[in-house]
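Build the 3D complex.
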Amino acid sequence: MEQNTTKSTPGTKRSWDGVPIHSESSKLHPPTSTMAEASESSPNILSMFGTFRDELDQHHDRRERLIKTSRDITALSKKIIFSLQRVRTANTPLPVSIQKETQSRFSQINELFRSTIPDITGLNSRRYLRQLSGGIQEFIEALSFHHYLTHQTLITRDEVAAHLPVEIIVTEEDYAMGLFDLTGELMRFAVTSLSAGAADTQAHEKGSDGGDTEERLNLPRLPPAQAGVVRDLREIRAEFESITVPRRHNNNMFRDYGKKSEVMQNSVEKVERAAYGILVRGSERPAGWKPDLSAGVEMDVY
Amino acid sequence: MIDRAIFESLQAKIDEEAAVRDELHEIVQTLGRKGRSTQATLSRAHSTPAEHLKSVLEDATKEILAQKEEVSRLKSVADKHPFYKYNGLWSRELQNLVSSIELCAWLGGLQEYKSSSSASFLTMEEVGKFLDIPVNLKEEDAFHLTLEEYLLALISMVEELARLAVNSVTLGDFERPTQISNFIKELFSGFQLLNLKNDILRKRSDGIKYSVKKVEDVVYDLSLRNLIPKGKSA
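Done.
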């Protein structure tokens, strides 16, 4: 490049494009003229982005409102679960105090779900599923636990949906994840009720199966109520294990399936070991003794 | 008592959804393959002087039109399902396509779809009209180009233009960096109007300032040595 015009006297002020600047007015001119030229030639960028901003703001507001509601629903659901863990037997009506407490929390949750409806109508019904699904899953956990304690069956997805406003979508994924979490609660419930119920074991043994031989009568057996929970957990585990999520879609659907599945298997195994421990050594343990739930399966829980 | 039907219907739903995903995935893959060849064509612009650009733009337009067909195919399948359920499957490839369209338009292609012949880029509405898809829907649950996708596409275009500013100089074009600089600074000021939260849009738009700086450095280097042609830009 043979351009040597730059070599002028030092100290000459120049604008960005190399034009020497002489006075205040000319200093201001070049940039303003190019800006005007640019905005003439293209759609008005600033006004375009102005509307974009309003739309994005609305989106973020909706999103944040839903995240907050989801957290509130999660907190209430956890409280319901805590109260329900004070119950000792399944398939019986709940104690009145617990029933009252959970009922009022369930209606508060319903209120919260209702409040989200304006934000999740039409196109947005699935847009914010991810924000809301934490709350929905926790709610399903609480509801299915409640359902199990009162009916000793698994709640179906349709039954869950019936407890919610129609606008709330209960996806299969949230339902499945809620059931996985339910197995954790059933584990706690089974282990505590096993240790509480084992006191009746001896009484039960004596009265049952009159026609059996002398020897079998003396063998300890789990009381049917507790045995039912253990059996149900085992069945849930078997059913969950039979489900296939195509590996190529692992990242997009049922994302936590593998992880939750592992936790579930662990819970079931804990209960199986606890049942074994109570059965074999039940009569040896001191009154009021509770198995340790904090430890992993590998540790002896009896 | 555990009702087996619960798990059977769960499995049925999983299979159903997997089949939909497979169908969409196949289309998106084709769209992506064609998209990469569009991008390869457009990247010839980095080594082609402006006066010979015409053939590059013609080739790119042809490939963009081929992609447009995939988009129509995608639309016809996606419209059968809730938009936001599967949107994540194609969002990326659609962004890449829009970014190719914008780059092609900025370089002077796709003239007939611009609001005026001097416009440097296509608005969201113009992109929608070109691709024959709705944009930025608010109520109706149907296939469309979302605002976020459009904005992300503009950001990719800015990054590509920053690279082009450098390569233009190598090709002996000292005028283009100034044009690029003006344009992306304008877009940058637009992006600065947005209140961004911690999401992908925030992360990507944070990168614009580096693109702006890259181009400004080129313009600075050129102006320092008085290499910028006077006529137009002064």
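The two ends of chain A are 88 Å apart (CA to CA).
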